[in-house]
Amino acid sequence: MPSKVTGRIVKARKHASTPHNKNHRWETFTAKIAKFNSLQPLRKVRRHDLDTEDFASATSYFANGMQRWNELNVSKVFIDFKRQVLPLCESLAQILHFEDRIMELLAEHISVQDKESLEPLLDLLTAFAHDLGARFEKHYAQSLSLIVAVAGRPQDVEVIEWTFGALAFLFKYLSKLIVPNIQPTFDIIVPLLGRSKHPPHIARFAAEALSFLVKKAGAPSHRETALPKFVDHVKLDLFKMVEDRQYTLYKDGIMTMFAEAIKGAERSIHTAAPAIVTQLIDAIPESLDDHEDRTSASTQEIWTDVVCGVLTSAIHHSTPDTFGEVADTTLDKIISYSGAQNSTGKWWRFVPFFRVVGVLGGVRKGSRITNWPKLISIITQMLDKIAKEREESYPNDQEDIWKHLMVPIAIVWHHIPIDALLAHHGALVQSLTKGSLMGWFIPFCSYACELDPSRFSNLLRSEFQKFILTHWSQRENEEMLCVLLPMMIQKQAFPPQENVKAVGFPRHGKIKSSLNLRTWRFPPFRREDHTTRTPRFGETVACPSILLFYNCLT
Asked: Residue spans with biased composition (Basic residues) (predicted)?
């Protein structure tokens, strides 16, 4: 990853305060940007430049636009454009005949990037595209390049609004031509999406405009052809940017593009959302080879970040009712993948799906999930297959297993309703206390205690006691108990010492002798005089954490 990265895409929050009535006061650039929605043109049913609906063959959007702006704009650049183009646009037939010359004049004057003339010129460009329809396809790439050139330079808020408004209108009018093959359009717009150095709001507006095409690609007629090709194209392009300092902003732009494609009006979810989410999950690269070095971010991890970011944004936008179909589709996809695996499986093959399940069950405290039994059942099935695999050691695996497996499971365990959890709790604990995962049960219990001490006491404490009485001396369990047990006691995970007998630990002489004579190697611990010291190698010390545990035993 690069040492320096550019800013992230953060959408301004809308406050519920009463709006002011001072329409002519000064506002900051950020405040103006927060008010601008680049997708607004896509929500309009028809254009403003026709007063009456006249669909006769002689009707021209470009000619009507010229009449309108002839009276409203007197800038030098626009007057020069008007003087040359008016003789060429007296009728629709004439416009079609001189289309190359008109496009040449539009390109010449838009490239000047004069603020006073950009609004009418960009508006006329979209009207020209509306008139030509499919004939505009040969001018499409040039038009996009003109718009990208304007948006790629520092501009006032008004210019940004006109630019992305024109971009949205082009996408709307030409969607039937663009959607079957979105990749060329994406390649032209991609500098604005964060691939090149631009402000985060430019990347957000470009992502919102492109999301309109992604929604169209998710329609039934294109989801089997156009959508998979586009997702793969975006994925491969993102992988090329991993070492670039623009990687963070570019990844945020891609996540915003897909997230906005999933969202509908108000707090609804678009009808194409299940197909888009399914394709994003299908695009997650295959698991790493057994002997591949995983010290750096893998392509699997990068694309899983994108999928989780898209789902997180959709969850924040939606309600339990509107998000239900997306959640069910996502869980069904994970079930199909898990069922296709062998009876045993390497843990990293399931990492993307544990992360996705963690997002579904953790964001907004899992309030968007209505089918909790299905979600927890998927977790237990995947854990059971991982637990059957022989434990192996790889560089940096410890952090990855904790972050991508144990933490999502603990978060789901924390948020799931108790009635849904009880039916699968036994299978969950059994998978965590056997095979390759048993070394993670103590830190899992510690984290569960930190999240919800009461739930830990009711559901996990007895299992925790049984486990450490049987496996306390295996692997690194002793050292982990040294560090984690005091934290759990502070969280009141166990009864007070005067009620030790209620804990249920049997007496165990071997534990006592081992605790007093054990040679410990662990991070510094706090002494009675509130200073810290790390024991020297070979030094016999009494670990305060373990002595506390022994007090609980006796």
From this structure: 10-22
List Cβ<8 Å contacts ≥24 apart for 104-107. 105/81, 106/81, 106/146, 107/142, 107/146
Q: Among residues 167, 187, 174, which one has the least CA distance to residue 137? A: 174
CA-CA distance, 18 to 96, in Å (whole number)? 50
Strand partners, 526: 532
| Among candidate residues 40, 97, 87, the one with its CA nearest the CA of residue 66 | 87
Amino acid at 399: E
408: nearest Cα among 434, 382, 436: 382
**Half-sphere CA count of 79, side-chain side, radius 13 A:** 4
Per DSSP, the three-state class of 396 is coil
CA distances from 32 to 139, 165, 261 (A): 32, 15, 24
Return the number of other C-beta atoms located less than 10 Å from residue 338's C-beta.
18
Contact by Cβ (8 Å): 182, 213? yes
Residue type, 97: H
**What's the N-to-C CA distance of the chain in angstroms?**
51
d(CA 207, CA 260): 8
Contact yes or no for 122/163 (Cβ under 8 A): yes
Q: How far is CA 539 from CA 470, 472, 484, 490, 545, in A?
A: 27, 21, 22, 28, 17
Q: Output the six-digit token pair for 470.
A: 């049987």
> How far is 480 from 470, CA to CA, in rounded Å?
15
Distances (CA, A) of 355 to 155, 309, 340: 40, 11, 19
Q: What is the pTM of this model?
A: 0.83
